[in-house]
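ERR on first pass: missing label on line 2. Operator R.T. fixed the label and resubmitted. Corrected input:
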Amino acid sequence: MLRQIFSIFEPTEKQFTSQALKRLKWATYLAMPCFPIMTLLEADPEIGLSKSATLALLLVALVSVIAFFIIAFSRISWRVWTPDRYLDESEIARKREASAFTMMVYGWGGLAVIIFGWLLSLSGVDVNGIINRFGGPIWWIFLGLVSVSYVHILKLISITPSIDDPDSDVQSVFKDKAFLWALVLFLIAITVVPFVKGYQDGHRDALADIEAAKQSQSHQNPAAINDE
Amino acid sequence: MMLTYIKMLYIYNNMIYNRIKLLRTEMGLSRKELADAVGVNFQTIGYLERGDYNPSLELAFKLAEFFDVPITAAFSPRPFKSLAEQLAAE
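pass 2 clean. output:
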């Protein structure tokens, strides 16, 4: 059962052409500013960004989010999350090389960031205050994890040889359709669910506002209410 | 001595040469069909054929068995001679 599910995300030859790999690489670069921009926009009331700066950031964030979804739904990225027992030996080799490189970046990069933060705090900068102002420690840990996951995907793309001489393979129509359906269902879930939730919350808030308005009206003019 | 050293460098440059593409084409198989037959993904066959990947011992034996050739006929640490060279040698 699990093998069937993971096989939905098995890449086809289309994903291994040099153009497809280059597109994925550039989508990864474009997706990198996504969460840092969200951090800035969240901290906006304190920073005091101008309207034009906010608009520019929103536009960049939009492009970044689209790029994020492109790499999130790319089959090559999904293979990273597939257990080794469902992977081919060449995929396992590439995944492990990319993972080893990423762990090295985690280690050395994390150490560099900590040392940098420590030196800043020694020179009198309120590092904790800055972290709390821009989302808090949990958000910064999340940013760090997401940033390094981009490194994993970039390394994987760089060590994946391209296949530019496509064979006359029979593409798995079932797998393509199943993948598309999984994608459509996921997109529906992430767009409809917040919309429905927002509608429910808005409806509830609107009812609460109406009730509050009636009550305040009754307090102000009880006679008018009684007449009614 | 120098020749032996160069030969050893040649042999141990981590590259395993193969005749997968030739054998596959002779049998009229696509990469996908061969991949399904030996239980790997098609891209592994593609990488093997282009020399971008060295197979595991298990995969090498599977492929040799599938093509019904000795493993040394399908894989070699040295480049295979071209057909023209082999015919000229005969």
